[in-house]
Amino acid sequence: MSSKVSFLAAGVLFLSQLASAQTPPFIGNLLLQPGLYAAASNSDGAAVTIQGCTGSPSQNWVFSGGQVHVFDNKCLDVTNGVNANGNKLQIWTCSNGNPDQQWYYDMWSNRLSWTNQGKCVDLTGGSLSDGNRIQIWDCTNNNPNQIWDTGYMANNLPYHSQDTQAGYNSCGTGSNQTSLCQTAWINSADDFCIWAPPNVGKIGDTEREEIAWCTKSGRGTRTIPDGTLKGVHFVKTRDYVQLSGVGDFTKVNIPAGDAGGELDNRGSDAKGNPVGGLVYGNSFGTALQYHEWTSFISDTQFCFRACVGASATSLCNHIYDEMGCDWNMPANYDPGVFENCDGDDDLPMGVYGTSTWHQGTSPTPTAHPAASSSNCKSLPTVSVGPANRRRELGKFEYKRAADPFFTSPPM
């Protein structure tokens, strides 16, 4: 009887979270990626199209009161209120209560739907070509053309991305060991950040406030003290970048003996652990924001994976928070090895054939074997050096891997 009550209570909690998920977890002016763009003119009826992200006023969207604002007084609008697949979107002067301007953003699926109409904002034909007009289409689960990530350009970060954030995201170009910067980067075995406490404390007690500790100076973060890292393995696959390694992480405020825990972009409330933590990198596009990432760290071991593409949520799953690095991210954790490699995707954590294992269910399955890697290039060691900020502060790119198993609806 008690197990049924617990199950129902969890179900009610989940539904209540969805019901309240009217807006993205981030705050302020947001990019809708890939590149949702209103016509440069601030005119009623201007088309909404795909364009490369530049951070211009026509790309700064604000979610408020169930509406999606641009140019201050214009709103995302369903043309003529026609509820039909393929109807293209426009902007129109905002008016309270206008049903054609009511939108619901589900922070768990990253879908933007026309409230109570069964239609979602849809990337027409799956094309990322500049000028492609955005449409509405029947909402369907796991449709990559209906995934709209929200975030920021790396060269125009807000001071806070969450209203309950302990640190900040606009971190400057210096470095100091009292920084509370919560913007991390992951590029290679000698250019990356880890999440760790601002002051001495166990990961389980400080997960909401962790800060970025990095191997490169110049991004406004703290730097990882030389001698901390004892081995680092970096791999880039088609769908993610991943770090695994060992070290003495008591040097970054993790107490000796702490088994650690998971940090990820979701957390229990979709605000992330740490709250407001943002992750960027240059592997799949210049200064690309990673919207799906997961990381574990203890006093002696760490791993960090950031994903792109249609499989991002399964390859960067974050529901196995008690299983640690070896189970979630099987990889090379050998001390004395510092290397950059290419590699194949690991199998999704927790998926075994057609079955999905759920944490806490007995017996616990063994971890998947580590995927193969190649073209490895060794480094003598990893120590602090300056970041290449010129590249990161230049043009923003958005690239998304294709899903070979999904057929796009027609244009």
Automatic annotation (TrEMBL):
Ranges where the Ricin B lectin domain occurs: 24-151
Disordered, as annotated region: 356-381
Transport is among the record's keywords: no
SUPFAM superfamilies, per the entry: Ricin B-like lectins
Keywords from the UniProt entry: Signal
Record's signal peptide: 1-21
Keyword Oxidoreductase tagged: no
Superkingdom classification of source: Eukaryota
Any Pfam family: Ricin_B_lectin
Protein name: Carbohydrate-binding module family 13 protein
Organism encoding this protein: Amanita muscaria (strain Koide BX008)
